[in-house]
User: Fold Outer membrane protein with beta-barrel domain from Winogradskyella eximia.
Amino acid sequence: MKKLMLMAALAVFGFTNVNAQDDATSGGQTSEGKWLIEANTGNAMLGTTGLYFSSSDGSSEYNIGLDGGYFIIDDLAIKAGLGYGGFSPDEGDSTSSFSYRIGAKYYFKSMIPVTIDLTGASGDGVENYAGETPLWLGFGAGYAWFISGNVSIEPGLRYNLSLNEDYTDEGVFQFNVGFALHF
Assistant:
């Protein structure tokens, strides 16, 4: 009996999810004139407009930010984002940073988001020894799982290429989970 109930619940969930995906692929959430607001998990290694918190040995690091976008044509959104973060060491002075992002996001088949954007940061404590600040060109791809008519969860992979070799010449690879509102 438990197996039957579990299978029935999975069937209902699967049917509901298929309907949400069908709504997504019919152009509803990603059609021209729609808006997008999203929050992503972040990475402390670069300026970010995502959500991030880390604490270790009495020191803590955090970031909070959001991205927003407007669909200029079906499946293509122009995006911008802002973030604010800080670092509080166990001893010494705290630092803070302001991050920004501008770019584009295209949804292949209305459910496979691909992004390209420019991300930078400024503020006390973000400069390296030469006084340079980070600037990154980001490329990402993932999958948009529409859990309702206007909410999606978007796990994805991202690579950030450093554009300021005086800051760092290393790229950063990351796994993100995004949460988006479409309206």
